[in-house]
Amino acid sequence: MTINTPDTGTGTGVTRVRAAKHTAESRVTLAHIMSEHDTNLYGTIHGGVVMKLIDDAAAAAAGRHADGPAVTVSVDRMSFLAPVRAGDLLSAHAELERAGRTSMTVAVRVTAERWNASGPTAEVATGRLTFVAIDAEGRPRPVPPLVVEEAPGHGDG
Questions:
Q1: pLDDT at 98 over 90
Q2: What are the start-end ranges of the H helices in the chain?
Q3: CA-based nearest residue to 61, from 114, 125, 107, 2
Q4: Which residue, 112, 107, 108, is CA-closest to 90?
Q5: For residue 107, what is the DSSP state?
Q6: Is-contact 24 35, C-beta < 8 A?
Q7: Fewer Cβ close by (within 10 Å): the C or N end of the chain?
Q8: In this predicted model, what pLDDT tens digit does every residue of 104-143 receive, in sequence order?
Q9: What pTM was estimated for this model as a whole?
Q10: Which residues face 45 on adjacent strands?
């Protein structure tokens, strides 16, 4: 699937054709082992550490979709569902939900498991962030359309 887009400032008046991208093309998972220096006064991992992991994963997904730089313009939602402890392996799973003309909405789900044992994972946080793709001068630039598909492990099976 392709769409025609107007010239975006080159002055040539040439129409460019951009191919739509599937959600799987920009899906990202970032993992990090939490340590003692990540803890707050209560002995659990500081929420800001989790927020940074969420923003990093979302930025990578947005940048992949945009084929270049994308900056965070808003944190639409952030939920902390369970405490995280030092020694937990956090995995932030990011996926585009929507692509507009220059902006993208990215959903992130964070899971935790012990770093040194296989076992159950628990969902500990979720986030939804909006990004805007930018050019070399920092101006918003168009992004490809998004073809939304069901994420692995979701749906009727």
A1: yes
A2: 47-66
A3: 107
A4: 112
A5: E
A6: no
A7: C
A8: 999 999 999 998 888 889 999 999 999 999 999 999 999 9
A9: 0.84
A10: 39
